[in-house]
Every structure is written in C-alpha cells, then in structure tokens.
Design brief:
Structural class: alpha/beta
Strand content: 15-25%
Number of helices: 22
Strand order of the largest sheet: 8-7-20-19-21-22-23
Shape: globular
Bound molecules: ligand 6R9
Mean pLDDT: 95
Largest sheet: 7 strands, mixed
Low-confidence stretches: none
C-alpha cells in the first residue's frame, strides 16, 4: 500500500527498497551537484554511452540567453546508442519494441537484433534514394511500427526528422514542410482508426502540391505500406514504394552509423506558441540523448525487466522521448499502440497492459477522465497486477482523476509520477522521483536534475528586475539553468527563439506556464498564461485558430480562448464578428467555420462553441481583452472586475456577450 500523509502519498517500503534513489536526501544531494557542478554530474552519466570521439567540454554557453552546447567536441550517434550499444551489452535477443496494431491479431515483436536490421535496411533504402546527412525529412506517419524505425534510420544517417502528427491537415503539414524547407517526406498508404481505413497519402499529396505552389518542390515521397490491398495513386517521378526498395538485393542488413557531432541537429518538432506560425524546436544529438536516457531511468525508476507503455502519439514530443529514444537508450521494452483507447471497446489500454504484462504505464489526464466515465467492468475484467508505477503528462491532473487512476489502475499500490515538461525541454523537467519522495495529487513535485525552476512575479515594464514570488504565491514559471535536453533554437528563427523565451523575464527561460511553490518546495502548475491552449493534451495556439476562422469571407473578427472541459481538460470557445453583408444563416456559417478549421489545422482544433458577437471587448488602444472573454467562456462572469471593464472602450459589450453565452449541453 502507498502510505498517505496529509495530501502526500508516499511509496511503499517495498518500492523504496528496490528504487534507484531511495530518499529525498539522496535526491537533494544529486540535484545540488547537478546544479552546482553540472560538468561532473552529466559527464559521469555520459561516460556510459558509446562515443566515436570523446567530448572536450561538458557544457559551454550562457543559459540566461539560451545559448547552450553540451558535450562539446564529442562525436556519437543516438541510433547506435539505442541499438548497437544495447546489442553489445547482451540485449540482442531482448524485445525492444512491442507493436500492437488496431486489429488485435496485428501484433509484432522486434528484438534489438530485429530492430537494428530493419533500421539499417530502411536507412540504406533512404540513402540509395539520395537522403543525406543534414537533410530535413518530414515523417507524416501515424502510429505504425515503421515510424520509430524510420526515425532511427534518419538518426543513423544524420538526416533531421520532423514528425508531423497524423491528425494534422494537408495545410498544416505543408506549413511545417515549408518552414523547415523539407524536400523529402515519408508517409504511408493508410492506417486504421476506429475500424476505418484512413488514407494518409491523399493529405500528403495535397501538402506537396501546396508546397509546390509556394515555391518548394518536393523531390521524394517515400511510401510505407501499412495497409494491404489499399491502393493509392503514385506519382512516378516523385513517389517511391519503400516496401519494393527494401526487397532489392542491394539493400544490405547493415548500415554504418554516421559519426555525428554532439551538437548536430537530431530532429525538429513543431509546436504551438502565442503567435501565429508553428515554432520548430530544434533538438540536437548528444544532450537530448543523455537527458532522455537519464529522465527515463530515474523518473520511471526503470529496471531491466520492466515493460513500458506510453500512450502518447509519436507525433508529439512525449512519444519521441518516451516511446522511442528514452526507453531504447535504456535497453527497455517499449510498447506502441496504433489507435484509440476505446476501440473496439473502452478497455483497449487495460487489455494491452494485461496482454503484454506492462509494468509502467504513462498516459494523459484527458485519457484518464475519458476512461473513468466508462463502466467499471471494463477495467475490472483485466489483470493489471503487473503494474508497479503510473505516470501522467500533458496537462495538470485534477485530484479526482488522480485518485481514480491510483485506485482503479494502480490498486492503491503504484506510485504516480506527474511529469511536467514541454516540447522545448526535450524531457521531463519537474516530477516525483518515485522511490525518493511522495506525490501530492495535482502537483508535479520537484525539479529533475539540472533543472532550477523559479516562480517570478509578472513584470509590467521592461526596466523592472525579476522578483521571486513568495511561497504559495502564483506567478510565472521560469527556468534558471540549462539542462542537456533543452532545445537549441527555433529552426531558422533565432530571433524568435530569443524574444519568445528570454525577454519576458530577462535572464530566465520563460515557460508560458503559471505556477506556485508550496512550503515543501513542491511545484503546482496552474496552466498556460499565454495564448496557448491544451485540448486533450494537444497543444494549440489560439492565434492559429483565429487565422483559420478569419479566412472565411463572412468573418471580420475572431477571438478564440480556452475554457474548462470535463474530459478534454480545455476546449475552444470562439467569438466571431460576422460581416454585415453576409446573407447566410448563423447555423450554416458555424458549420463552414468548423470545416475551415478542420481543413486548415485538423480536427483537434475545431472549436466546441462558436458565438456570434456584435463587438469585441477592446481596450482603448483597440486590443481585444481576452481575459474577459476567458471569464465569459468559463462561465465566471461574476469574476469580471470593474477594473477589467473600466479599461474598455465600450464597457456595455461585456453584458451583451455574457447574456448570449453558449452554455453546456
Ligand atoms: C510534454 C508536453 C506543454 C504544456 C506545458 C503545460 C502542459 C504538460 C503537464 C502540464 C501540468 C503536467 N503540461 N505536462 N501541465 N502538469 N504534468 O505535453 O509538451 O505539448 O509542448 O505541452 O503542456 O502547460 O507548458 P507540450
């Protein structure tokens, strides 16, 4: 049993006794060293990796301005460390990847030897077709086993992968290809989603056409066959069937790993920010490798016999770091599942845990909330007794979901690690270390090694110095150190990297999240304080959605905000002003607006509510006061203070908008 003390849940004695780190004192000693002497701390960990050439300096840079280099002068290859190095350590016949397709019978096991062979063959096929070190290559692939294989193949030959989430539309895909200038793409003929065959190639083709219209010619589209008997059109001069390439005699089972500089780019991951276009966070080789390895080992208290199941999509950072790189760098067995938790029935995750004897399960609060609404028999009919640790990621976990997770999934026996981090971080930044100290439902707990979070008061002018908030006082969560996994820049936009992260609180990395710290030093994340929303764990910028709405000819103004949603965590509420000359009905326009967002960004970004308003609440300089719209959308109209209304050019609009608020069904 986990022991409860006030709101603190301590791990059981049995858990502590087998854990890597067994006390808060031991954790604190390690944390202190990681901050005061990072060279010794990270240098010691990095020695266990395979290096073609050792580094000359562990860290060089100025964290206050986001100029960071790790393992300077070293040469390594992350794919080599994920596969070859594990085989050298005797794990060749150990299962590396367990793939569960949506059809139950479609289940594949890959040992480390198998995975190396597949990765080498894919790497050779890409190389034969002209993919080289430094090329950006977009992977528009869903959750099929070929996705991690292609990622590792790219890493092996030094091509920079950019995985674009399968739920993004052709337009969103094209934006990302244009932003990183990728002339090559890997996609698939189709995949399974809730019993339906989805055609990914049609979106890929459309994205290539949009890129061509914008002046970027796509030279190569490599197509992986996920589906049998699912014919998609091929464009002969551009498209290559990878399955045919892989059958060629000349494709050998071995491909040497490229000697990569420690700071050579590994991947670009697009994420949403406060301003319109997506931001391409650039992660480099050695720092990301050492950081994902270390966080996976200590936060999940990983042991050789664990079976690890992370339910994220590899199209997001969580899947990169904790389905692919972190687990494989530890020589672990990682489980990957193609589809949704509710197909064919709402017990698919519990079934997978039972089937593969999963010991560590990592999912998102939105998933927990959706599954706790299902009949309890769906979970009770499965044997979950192999589980020993649970994780949560993506958004704050509400205590009700935490308790349900702990009781029904963890049988009051498994510690829960609530891991706070972001795409920019590469790996987890704040979390419980499960053997070392307890968890408090709703708090992400304490910083990981190398991470020094501070809660700062918000500044109103450029001259004000940074001031730390008091204990329990809400403020802006910032980071005062550099850790090896931090992004190095925004691809092609160094100024945006500087201005977006290092100017709000000069000298600190600004996370965009609000937080407070309690008397025990535990951090409580209160959610985004910028124009970023988190819908079912998908990070979206409200400005991107506004841009999509504004592309409809009948819309003259649009403002989108997030509001609390029982299952999704947050949902989107759009306020729009209609062109006076528009003749269409509001209902028709509402449908069209949803269709526009679906096609410009993807289904995840479609607003749950769209309200037509006559005027926006604007301040005297004409800026929409979103705080007021947020209060209306969240049904917290009583909390709109006079001081908020007084700054408006036309205070009367607030009542008008509030009266027409769209309620919950
Ligand atoms: C890993 C990931 C990052 C944003 C982040 C924050 C929210 C993530 C959280 C959490 C509270 C947690 N977030 N984990 N909030 N508790 N454990 O999700 O990356 O997609 O970049 O989103 O998600 O608001 O700033 P990303």
């Amino acid at each position: 049993m986990t022991e409860k003390r006030d709101d603190l849940y301590l791990p059981s004695r049995e858990f502590v006794e087998q854990a890597h780190i067994q006390s808060r004192a031991e954790y604190e000693r390690m944390w202190k060293q990681s901050i005061e002497d990072p060279d010794t701390f990270w240098g010691y960990i990095a020695k266990d990796f395979h290096w073609f050439k050792p580094w000359t300096q562990v860290y060089r840079g100025e964290p206050e301005i986001g100029d960071n280099e790790w393992f300077v002068g070293g040469k390594t290859n992350i794919c080599y460390n994920c596969l070859d190095a594990q085989i050298e350590k005797g794990r060749g016949d150990k299962v590396a990847l367990l793939f569960q397709g949506e059809p139950e019978a479609d289940c594949k096991r890959f040992t480390y030897n198998d995975l190396l062979k597949h990765v080498c063959r894919f790497a050779n096929a890409l190389k034969k077709n002209g993919v080289k070190k430094g090329d950006r290559i977009v992977l528009y692939l869903p959750m099929i086993w070929q996705l991690p294989v292609v990622m590792l193949a790219c890493a092996r030959i030094g091509a920079v992968h950019t995985v674009v989430f399968g739920g993004f539309s052709a337009e969103a895909l094209a934006d990302r290809m244009l932003a990183c200038g990728a002339k090559k793409m890997v996609t698939t003929n189709g995949y399974w989603r809730s019993g339906q065959k989805i055609n990914a190639k049609a979106n890929a083709d459309k994205a290539c056409m949009l890129c061509a219209n914008a002046g970027l010619t796509i030279d190569d589209v490599f197509v992986v066959d996920r589906m049998v008997d699912f014919e998609v059109p091929y464009i002969t001069y551009r498209d290559t069937a990878l399955s045919k390439e892989l059958m060629l005699d000349e494709i050998s089972d071995y491909c040497p790993a490229e000697k990569m500089d420690a700071e050579d780019p590994l991947f670009i991951m697009y994420t949403s920010g406060s301003t319109g276009s997506p931001k391409g966070t650039l992660h480099t080789t050695a720092g990301y490798m050492v950081y994902t390895y270390t966080t996976f080992k200590y936060i999940f208290d990983y042991k050789e016999d664990d079976i690890f199941f992370c339910t994220a999509d590899i199209g997001w950072i969580t899947g990169h770091s904790y389905i692919v790189y972190g687990p494989l760098l530890n020589g672990a067995t990682t489980v990957m599942y193609e589809s949704v938790p509710t197909y064919p029935e709402p017990d698919r995750f519990w079934h997978i845990i039972d089937k593969f004897k999963v010991t560590i399960f990592y999912t998102a609060p939105t998933v927990i909330r959706a599954l706790m609404n299902q009949d309890i028999q769906w979970i009770e009919k499965h044997d979950l007794s192999t589980l020993r640790l649970l994780g949560s990621v993506g958004e704050p976990i509400n205590p009700e979901a935490w308790h349900w997770y702990s009781h029904y999934v963890g049988h009051d026996r498994c510690p829960i690690v609530d891991t706070w981090w972001q795409t920019e971080a590469g790996g987890v930044l704040i979390s419980t270390i499960p053997g070392a100290f307890g968890s408090k439902p709703g708090s992400a707990a304490l910083p990981f090694f190398g991470v020094k979070p501070v809660v700062l008061r918000s500044r109103t002018s450029g001259d004000e110095p940074a001031v730390e908030a008091d204990v329990n006082e809400k403020g802006e969560l910032c980071l005062a150190s550099a850790w090896p996994g931090i992004m190095r820049t925004l691809y092609g936009e160094p100024e945006r990297h500087q201005n977006g992260y290092y100017t709000q609180q000069p000298g600190y990395f600004f996370t965009g999240d609000g937080a407070y710290k309690d008397v025990d030093g535990y951090f409580w994340i209160t959610g985004r304080i910028d124009d970023v929303v988190n819908i079912s764990g998908h990070r979206l910028g409200t400005v991107e959605i506004e841009d999509a709405l504004l592309s409809h000819p009948a819309i003259v103004e649009a403002a989108v905000v997030g509001y609390p949603h029982k299952v999704k965590g947050e949902d989107l509420y759009a306020f729009v002003i209609l062109d006076k000359n528009s003749k269409e009905s509001e209902e028709d326009i509402r449908k069209e607006l949803k269709a526009v967002v679906r096609s410009d960004i993807g289904p995840i970004a479609v607003p749950g509510k769209i309200q037509f308003v006559r005027e926006m609440p604007k301040n005297r300089s004409g800026k929409v006061v979103r705080r007021i719209l947020r209060k209306i959308a969240s049904n917290e109209i009583d909390e709109i203070s006079d001081s908020m209304i007084n700054i408006l050019a036309e205070p009367g609009v607030v009542d008008e908008i509030a009266q027409n608020r769209i309620g919950d069904k």
